[in-house]
Amino acid sequence: MTKRVLAVDDSKMVRDLMSYMVASGGYEAETAENGAMALEMLAQQRFDLALVDLNMPLMDGYTLVENIRGNPEWEDIAVIIVTTEAEAEDRRRGLEAGADLYLVKPVDEVELLTNIKMLIGDPDG
Question: DSSP string covering 40-98, please?
């Protein structure tokens, strides 16, 4: 069964780019435009990893990560924050919320796929 990644970002262009990069690595990609939509999708479908932007309407990335980490059914979902926020304080908050990794945009495709593979393994593994 192919491993599944949920890309959460309010920018359609970024969602499409993340989805393309994830799919090019052999993973199945789905997208959500905000944290609230992502929680609905997580409740209905199985994902192995979430790529989460910090600045989104309805529910920011910090809150989404805290919700993922607070739900025992989702505790094995890996989380990578992918954001434009490069300050040390933002990084600290993201990791304290429960993210496994914190990457600053623009993210290189090879770097993204290497980190995804490190966290959840091969797409079909």
Answer: HHHHHS--SEEEE-S--SSS-HHHHHHHHHH-GGGTT-EEEEEES---HHHHHHHHHHT
- pTM higher than 0.90: yes
- Taking only the tens place, the pLDDT of each residue in 62-96 is 999 999 999 999 989 999 999 999 999 999 999 99
Judging by DSSP bridges, how do beta strands 28-32 and 49-52 pair with one another? Answer: unpaired
Segment 48-57, tens digit of pLDDT: 999 999 999 9
Single out the residue of 43, 84, 44 nearest to residue 61, CA to CA: 84
Asked if 75 contacts 108 with a C-beta cutoff of 8 angstroms, the reply is no
Collect contacts of 12-17 with beta carbons under 8 A, ≥24 apart. 14/53, 14/105
